[in-house]
């Protein structure tokens, strides 16, 4: 259907003729709710590389669960916990910067996943599915898991909001106030893992990082207060899901990649808009 001849139909038709598209939209919105809320703290604390590493660190668990025949989410969560534990152990016992240990584990976990899957003749197709997801293949059980994960993420952020806020801007002050920044950091890592595990079926491990970082980064350019930043992040992510799904439906492109690219384009658009505005003000 042409957008020019029927603009309203372009937006509405996919969700009226296909239950698959409705489920995909719900799955995408639940993924955005989880990743955008926790991703706000990832961006504020400068933990983007850690988020990327965690997004790929779950792959060995997914690969093992797939071969053994157990739930993929369980394998992903176990691998995420192993990744978080490994980062903390190396941080305590190594003088190297955090990004070095994260980078080493990132490469190691990704290589391990490929090694495990390469024992199967169809490993290329399996790996592609894990990396890029299949949002149009989401079922009711997946939606329930995503809803639970989103609720856990939002509740966890709400419960630890004050420790996270103080720790983000002054960790020493958080420690003096008895807010236990170490525990808050561990909880944040756990919630990042939960949001990634809940979202990988929808957009895949390679693209979930885009939802974890791009909408919060866009929101950080638009607003200053953290609650508003989380809300704006969810709105930007939801818009990216909607536009990405519609582009995928009408132009037969990969849904996960279309949604992730929409989120990145929104970020670049805000950056370009602010740069243009600053240039105009300077010229006056």
Descriptive notes:
With about 280 residues, the protein is mainly α. It has a single domain (about 5-284), classed as Orthogonal Bundle (ABC transporter involved in vitamin B12 uptake, BtuC), CATH 1.10.3470.10. It contains 13 helices and no strands. It has helices at about 5-15, 20-45, 50-55, 60-70, 70-95, 100-115, 125-130, 140-160, 160-170, 170-175, 180-220, 225-250, 255-284. The longest helix is centred in the C-terminal third of the chain and has 42 residues, at about 180-220. The protein is globular.
Quick take:
The chain contains 13 helices and no strands. With 284 residues, it is an all-alpha fold. The longest helix is centred in the C-terminal third of the chain and has 42 residues, at 181-222.
Key terms:
mainly alpha, 284 residues, ABC transporter involved in vitamin B12 uptake, BtuC
Helix content: over 70%
Distance between the termini: 45 Å
Stated plainly, the CATH topology is called ABC transporter involved in vitamin B12 uptake, BtuC
Q: Count the domains.
A: 1
Task: Spell out the helices and strands N to C.
Answer: HHHHHHHHHHHHH
CATH homologous superfamily title? ABC transporter involved in vitamin B12 uptake, BtuC
Distinct helical segment count: 13
The largest β sheet comes out as:
none
The radius of gyration computed from the alpha-carbon positions, rounded to a whole number of angstroms, is: 20 Å
Overall pLDDT: 83
